[in-house]
Amino acid sequence: MASDLDQLFELLRFPSISTDSRRAGDVRACAGWLDAKCREFGLDSGLHETAMHPVVVARNEHREGLPTVLIYGHYDVQPVDPLELWDSDPFEPVVRDGRIWARGATDNKGQHFAHLLGVGKAMAEDGGLPVNLTLILEGEEEIGSPNLRPFLEQNRDFLACDVIAVSDTGMVAPGVPTMGYGLRGIACCEVVVRGPARDLHSGLFGGAVANPATAVARLTASLHEPDGRVAVEGFYDDVRPLEAWEREMWAKVPGVADGDFLEVTGSLALFGEPGYTAAEQTWARPTAEVNGIGGGYQGEGSKTVIPAQAMAKYSFRLVPDQDPADIMQKVRRHLERHAPPGVTVEVIGGHDGRPYIADPHSRFGKAAQGALRKAFDREPVLIREGGSIPIIEDFREVLGADTLLLGLALADAQIHSPNENFPVANFEAGIRLNRALLRELAGA
């Protein structure tokens, strides 16, 4: 059999970009490869169709009296643009400086395939697993998992489990085992501002009609107070405050001091809601972010026009107990209230997901910490994650099980960016983690 790294490289070569309809065949081919690999490792596996991309579901033989563990991952990846900023072909993985460089290396193929390899090794070496296992690999996470919740609801009994494990989050620093017990939620939208019926000559009409590009800039600026707080009316009404024990614990976590954030991001200065550290801001406070803004002429040189319309894309990261639908209503009202005269504002809702939080000191949480301790030979740290995995709260609502977030990604993994990478050491640790995790959960 090919080496662990060679097998991962095969998986990484699939350009399984779920956002690009032209890649639908590649997404399906990737799912088929994973399905075959699961069966090769001794699991009962199959492809389950959805309205878009298939879900791979693999299981061992379930036996009475054993806990049932569901492991989740996603095989779709982000687009690679801008391609010219990659140092090597994003779909031809290479190892440099102890890291695997390829799209999907960290998010999420490298992380979930480490688990699959751990399962395969246990099946081969131990003759089976100490738990009942269900493995779900989906192909739509990067577009908000629109078809996974319906799939869960349709197969609730088949997918019933006691606990869920996911490695699609981060480590606070190299070699520091990290368990997440919370995720921020998300609410996205696109705002289109329309003014004149067509682009206008800025000399003939400038000063007499509203400029949609100016209006978008004003609306965007209205989202924040000068000190960084979100200015949307009622935005903080349902925010659950940080617990004192969390702030005390996080102050001791290595690799997340304010200076570390500056070094990782390359930013000139930190900026955000006053009264919180950078770690607290990203793990447990809500935000409003501008993901894109545009309008009017974008080419070389000048074209003196008043554009007929302009646009912006916003995302709002949410924390317990904020609700995405409620937040989007408040955002709509805010934008309508702050729209200048002479333009119309259309708010187009995007994907969303609820925030997630669980008790890290539950019996399964303690078992996961034991597995991390064995895999890394170091005491684990407990954090909340700043990112969003909307399906995690869906798992709880549909299957009634909490999720263990066992991240293997580093802050400089450059996920969603050119030159995504994954340390070989983390890949190998992920295989060890799976072996330890299943044993620890069996005894929890």
Describe the structure.
It is a single chain. The protein has 13 helices and 18 strands. With 444 residues, it is an alpha+beta fold. The strands form four sheets. Strands 1, 2, 3, 6, 7, 8, 15, 16 and 17 form a nine-stranded mixed beta sheet that branches. The protein has a four-stranded antiparallel beta sheet with strand order 11-13-9-14. A three-stranded antiparallel beta sheet has the order 4-5-18. It has two domains: 4-183 and 355-442, Aminopeptidase (3-Layer(aba) Sandwich); 185-239 and 286-353, Alpha-Beta Plaits, CATH 3.30.70. It is globular.
Any idea of the CATH class of the largest domain? Alpha Beta
Distance between the termini: 34 Å
Q: What's the count of strands?
A: 18
Instruction: Round the mean pLDDT to the nearest integer and report it.
Output: 96
Q: Which architecture name of the largest domain does CATH use? A: 3-Layer(aba) Sandwich
Helical amount: 25-40%
Low-confidence stretches: none
Percent strand: 15-25%
Shape: globular
Report on the biggest sheet.
Answer: 9 strands, mixed
CATH homology group of the largest domain: Zn peptidases
Count of alpha and pi helical runs: 13
| CATH topology tier name of the largest domain | Aminopeptidase
Q: How many structural domains are formed by the residues? A: 2
Alpha-carbon Rg, integer: 23 Å
What structural class do helix, strand and pairing data support? alpha+beta
